[in-house]
Amino acid sequence: MNNDNGRATPVNEFAKLNVPRKIGYACGDFACNMSWSLVGSYLVFFLTDIALIPGAVVGLVIFISKFWDAVNDPVIGSLADHTNTRWGRYRPWIIFAFGPMLIFNVLTFTTVPSWSATARTWWGLGMYFILVLLYTMVNVTYSAMPALMTRDTETRSSLSSYRMTGAFLAMTVLSFLTLRVVNYFGGGAKGYQYAAIFFSLLAVPFFIITCASTKEIVQIDDNKGVQAGFIKQFRTLAGNWPVIQIAIAYLAWGIIQGGMTFRLYYCTYNAHNELLYANTQTLWSIMGMAGAFSVTYLVRKVNNKGTLGGLAFSIIAIASIISYFLPIESSAAQGVYYIMQAIVGLGTGMMLGNVFGMMPDTAEYTYDKYGIYAAGFLSTFINFMLKVGQAISISGAALILDKVGYVPGSEQTDRVLFTMNFGAHMFVGICCIVAAIALFSYKLDKKTYNEIVERLRKKGMAN
């Protein structure tokens, strides 16, 4: 907003946003997950069992695609940080990229069985690579937006809480409906393509709500900070421990998602119950919503957000390790498995709702320490670590299954069944312990954050 002299009018940058604004922001992650949760939960299975691409090739495709993010993530983040329009820095990226992203979401889940294996592979590789780029344009800038929607740290956590509630609602919808929609349309390649069309169309109104209801009110005067190009922004990572610790947690979460890739295989072949995956994922998502929404209230009870994140990772670790020891073929064990996955979902919701709320606070820390405002760049770096973890573990899951002798649609050997169980549960538990340690040692508490903001105010770099 400008006054009569043409100068920017100071606004209350510590606004406590109302519930409709928070819901409007949350709609964006609901929409994003109509693509990304579908990809995360079903793409590897689709490529190996529907497109009939060898597991080793699928693993290589996923691995390369994640390192493709190494190129486009920081570039997109840096470009967004230097964007300056009447719609804001980050919101325009969502407005113009979500449509193409949803189109390529459908194309990624499109395959023609009559094509040669080479053609199916190159098609899958190309469509997925473009989807990754477009998703970066949408989701990385979406993640950076809270840093400019308010400077109030608890409101940022609340935005994150609402956001992850929206994400888990999307996961719930996907978990319950995906296989049912696939089967309704006849299964196979056609079923998955129609499922992708269905979920992509469902995402459109939610993206529109987010674009219409969000507003960037934090005013960054680029003349008061250090002018930083793309390369210089990398210097903000040196000794930036809050960013590094959150990045470690994101790396662990990315690796954990690779472990969770094994769950569909585990339920299908170890438990001989494909719907066990759909049902536990639905329960996992419902409990995730509860866990994410609880962050709005729990964050007020702690002096350090890292404590809440460390506790959440600990909860996931305990329930995952218990799941590893269950004799899953028995109905009683499957009943316990439902309980354990509900606990995993609760912990995951708490963790994601909290950690996403920690990320915007690092923008002020970095601005104070280096004089460079780089919320978009930091968001891309942290998200890049998530994708590195995914690259290692999701591609690793496909490669390992191929290595131990997995044969799609066949009776599996004990070695394969052990690998599926270990990857889905014990591996997840170990990674969560590492992430919990990183967050329990997080030092950017509320007192330190408030001191940073006060210094920025004295320098005229915050209102």
Give the averaged pLDDT, no decimals. Answer: 86
SSE arrangement, N to C: HHHHHHHHHHHHHHHH
Query: Kindly, what is the distance between the CA atoms of the first and last residues, rounded to a whole number of angstroms?
Result: 14 Å
The CATH architecture classification is: Up-down Bundle
Which descriptor suits the 3D outline? globular
CATH superfamily: MFS general substrate transporter like domains
Number of self-contained structural domains: 1
Task: Describe the model.
The chain has 463 residues and is mainly alpha-helical. The protein has a single domain, classed as Growth Hormone, Chain: A (Up-down Bundle), CATH 1.20.1250. The protein contains 16 helices and no strands. It has helices at 19-50, 55-81, 91-108, 117-144, 146-149, 153-184, 188-213, 230-233, 241-270, 274-298, 305-324, 331-358, 361-370, 375-404, 414-440, 446-458. Helix 14 (375-404) packs antiparallel against helix 15 (414-440). The protein is globular, with a radius of gyration of 22 Å. The two termini are 14 Å apart. 57% of the residues are buried. Residues 1-7 have low confidence and may be disordered.
